[in-house]
Write a structure and sequence with these properties.
The complex is a heterodimer of chains A (646) and B (204). With 646 residues, chain A is mostly helical. The mean pLDDT of chain A is 92. In chain A, helix 4 (51-80) packs antiparallel against helix 5 (90-124) and helix 15 (408-438) packs antiparallel against helix 16 (444-470). Helix content of chain A is 67%, strand content 2%. Chain B has 204 residues and is mainly alpha-helical. Chain B has a single domain (13-48, 63-203), classed as Four Helix Bundle (Hemerythrin (Met), subunit A), CATH 1.20.120.80. The longest helix of chain B has 34 residues, at 133-166. Chain B is elongated. The model of chain B is unreliable at 1-6 (pLDDT under 50). The chains are: A mainly alpha (646), B mainly alpha (204). Chains A and B meet through helix 7, helix 8, helix 9 and helix 20 of A and helix 1 and helix 5 of B. Chain A: Its cofactor is Cu cation; ferriheme a. Chain A: This is Quinol oxidase subunit 1.
Chain lengths: 646, 204
Amino acid sequence: MKWDEFFVTGEPLIYMADAAIVLTIIGIVFVLTYFKKWKWLWKEWLTTVDHKKIGIMYIISAVLMLFRGGVDALLMRAQLTVPNNTFLDSQHYNEIFTTHGTIMILFMAMPFIFGIMNIAVPLQIGARDVAFPYLNALSFWTFFFGALLFNISFVIGGSPDAGWTAYMPLAGNELSPGPGQNYYLLGLQISGIGSLISGINFIVTILKMRAPGMTLMRMPMFTWATLITSILVVFAFPVLTVALALMTLDRIFGTHFFTLSGDGVPMHWANLFWIWGHPEVYIAILPAFGVFSEVVSTFARKRLFGYTAMVWSMVAISVLSMLVWVHHFFTMGSGAPVNAFFSVSTMAIAIPTGVKIFNWLFTLYKGRIKFTSAMLWSLAFIPTFVIGGVTGVMLSMAAADYQYHNTYFLVAHFHNTLICGTVFAVFAALHYWYPKMFGVILNEKLGKITFWFFVLGFNVCFLPQYVLGFMGMPRRIYTYPADAGWTELNVISTIGAVMMGIGFIFLCINVVYTYFKGERDLTGDPWDGRTLEWSIPSPAPHYNFAVTPQVKGLDAWWMMKKERKEGKEEEEPEYKPIHMPSNSGRPFIMSIFFFIAGFGLVFEWMPVAIIGLIGVIICMILRSFEYDDGYYVPVEEIKQTEAGRE
Amino acid sequence: MSEIAPKQSNLPLEYSTKQNQLNILGFWIFLGAELALFATLFATYLVLVSRTAGGPGPEELYELKTVLIETFLLLTSSFTCGLAVYEMRRGKQAGMIGWLIVTILLGIGFLYFEIEEFILYAVHEGATMQTSAFLSSFFALVGTHGLHVTIGIFWILIIILQVLKRGLNADTARKVFISSLYWHFLDVVWIFLFTLVYLTGMVS
């Protein structure tokens, strides 16, 4: 392979990206060296096993990916604003919509959610950390290097261009030659390891490490959502693992699972992909429901309405989510009986989701609502998500779907659910838990500016796309003729996208502003919260709880506060040394080896791949022979930290 | 890793610490994920089994004799693995290691016959992974199981070394117990392989 094939050449946009990447790397290295921060970086972050720091790293990575995916989105909108545009050629456009979809779902939404879970769940259940802190670090680093591998594709070797669904035979060797599609396969495979481990980790943490007195039905709703999501992760991700592995075999080793030759079945890919892919949608949305439940109940200053119904509706959604995958390809010709089954099962999901919507509304009813930024995101979620849900039911009717399929109606629908569900939720969660992460409160004024730009921008961007869909505009086209009559609505849509971009910029400004001038949260409970994470100082001390809390009911912290107000005497806390896990650099190093192995396979350089895999195996063996019992936080240190709180 | 918690005397050694209990539960959940993984491979095989692209089909390929030997070796190894855990619970380190070694040897025997079977198909009958969709899925399914057995052999070997070095304590007992769960799981998968792939393939 020649160098000009190795690096992507011939595109001014790519050269600009090259320059930006080099400058950013130089900048980071310079800053770290100038401020002598290398050791700090290694000791405090790269080797950490603290769930709160891992959560923060997840969120930082997710925001970076939101930027990358957002730039992809703006490039696409720029191309589609006017007919016969030549800003992007068809190949480049295909690459961009592929990376936009893949990055937003797998490297933005999921890690953002995992980050929030990492920060909130152990604190909500009164635990010291997650069950397996070392594996938690491995989860993050495999995700990070998987994402990195996927992201370098646009400057080295070329991006995948077969869509985020990578349907065969389009994604096969004949129609997608070169390393692009391999990046997709290996990047997702490596980060998928992390997702699976996270799922196991959270299930064990939630089942086994709750504070005394916290029965399952006394758990905060976000913890419930995490538990159910994790179960979905554990049973859905192995399907993706297999599907990706089989396509890798098809592409690199000439097998015939999904090929047209050798009697392969391309449709089998679509089945496997969506057997994972539909639960994946709920992996992204159920935690969002959990966030909204927390935020709505806190800022309506009321107990969550219909707690039990909320739990069971999530369970129902998770079960149904495994039984609807065919609705992604009604038009593929599975036949009327099959389509009918999946039509009905899809519509059935609207029932538990409707239950949840009404429960949020009843929680708000007669509540003393505080319109904070986090609450605004949650309030905006309800009507916009209902639009996404209603259009979803429209799409679920197999016969009607033949009309909607592959049009902008669908594009508008899934953005209406994923943005108004997941993205609104992670923004709400960011505002809500920011004090617990950093000890400062995100600026409310900037938060509201972000909110209005983003939410209005969202509707301006995507509502016209429903109409475009009805007018027959197909998705995944890179340009359209002037006489199609789609121009005006496309212009409006692009304006909306730019507004969302401005909203994102305000979010970044807010983070920087808060870093320098943010209001400190000295109480540890800035929102008058209800759950245990608000009972400890902000930012949370590295050992979390000085004394394991005793839970007497739902909304444990709310009950404790009430008891205090009633003048109940508090016992002087008796501190004991707290056991902590040791830091380890191995998850980081092991993930680098994963990256090397993946990179080798992408370019089909087998020696490189083998070296990477051997590195991974050595790391695992070293881990097996390691006997590290961690360390104890002495009582003195706990006393000091806790005294500084008052 | 292990949290030093008060020892609960009525529990077996591998369950004696809180961290051990977490690890064992975590591994059970991991086995749930493995189940989903193998289920996907089985589904793929069943979808593709009739698609031979002019190459050999199941009934021409499979031979009962090799498969029966493999089955007996693996099922016996699962039994000896159970004996190892039984010895561990009685506190007999030597007995445990002895049975673990027998387990590994039976596992190696299984692998020997499986590799021989694969070579027979690929080299002598020209039935490789690249021949047809059926053969791709056959090698992917059976090969993934074989890969798991290989990993299991090395894993148990590493654990034996650790027991020799450190003796039988809560940590090493947990590792032996978890690897035994893994080994039994592979046995269960093989029963499905034997039935759904080989027996069904030879009957139809």
